[in-house]
Amino acid sequence: MKRSIPIIDLADIGLGNAEEPKQSTIDRVSKELDEAFVNIGFVYLKNHGIDNPTVDAVLRASQTFFELPDSCKDIYRRNSTQYDGYSGVDQEILESKNLHEVREAYDITSLDSFFPDKHQPEFRKTVSELVPKLCKLSHRLLRCLAVALGLDEEYFTRCHTMMCQGSDKNATTFRTLFYPSLADGAIKAGVERCGQHSDYGTFTLLFQDDIGGLEVLSGGEWIAATPILGTVLVNVGDLMQFWTANRYPATIHRVRVPEEEIRRRQPRQSLAFFVHPDNDVMVSPLNGSKNNSPISALAHLNLRYSQTYKY
Ligand SMILES: O=C(O)CCC(=O)C(=O)O
Ligand SMILES: [Fe+2]
């Protein structure tokens, strides 16, 4: 049977609710998250409390930045020692067989980081509205996951205390992605928008526009992760898979170049929030398995980056 990505209603765990969430909601959401992560590693959340205008404002400000000439964007390029900033087409190849991955991105690990203020001041303003909400929502999900795994409710939040305070402390990254129009000709072998990969950290939150193309590999089949307005998509990262001794799979996903030319001509945008533990947190499987030695969150991430970035 073809699996599908479930939708969970966060109800009073969502950020819209001023009061503490009810224990019954925490218990229900924890159970549903556990089921979704065990079965497919992906889930849509509704009623998360991050409003569409806040998300749309970042998408619009990002688009203006990405449409600048390369000579401007080059000023903000990230490199092997400086995680924050702009990456151009082909700078990150996620699937080694691909010749081209036609994707641009801008990464932020701290709101004090360097932003393209001179060329696009709205970018800092809109990202600074959204990122604190992403941190807050992530903490609420980390609590539910601890409950789901039978741990003390603060187990994971204690390991994620420095999110968005700079990559020297915690590598959690807000990334705005832009997949340019692929106007010319047919689809070519070895050209993707985003090659197949799993994410690296604890989990990822993803907002996507309505263009589509994201697919998730489950039970040997590719399943479309169709955009659903008002939801955020959450998926398990490699480090969480290791932490949970494979209970939660870091599911492989990709973004395909659309087959219909009319859709290929349209750029696609998404916003990803890659949640990582604090750099010095030592991670080992929660079930006590001694098959692998513990690894620090930072060492794990550096290993994964070294496999994908072309500098
Ligand atoms: O753009 C998307 O929808 C997904 C991007 C992604 O998987 C990633 O950047 O890790
Ligand atoms: Fe990803």
TrEMBL record:
PROSITE patterns: FE2OG_OXY (PS51471). Residues 170-277 form the Fe2OG dioxygenase domain. GO terms for molecular function: metal ion binding; oxidoreductase activity. Keywords: Iron, Metal-binding, Oxidoreductase. Pfam families: 2OG-FeII_Oxy (PF03171), DIOX_N (PF14226). Belongs to the iron/ascorbate-dependent oxidoreductase family. This is Fe2OG dioxygenase domain-containing protein.
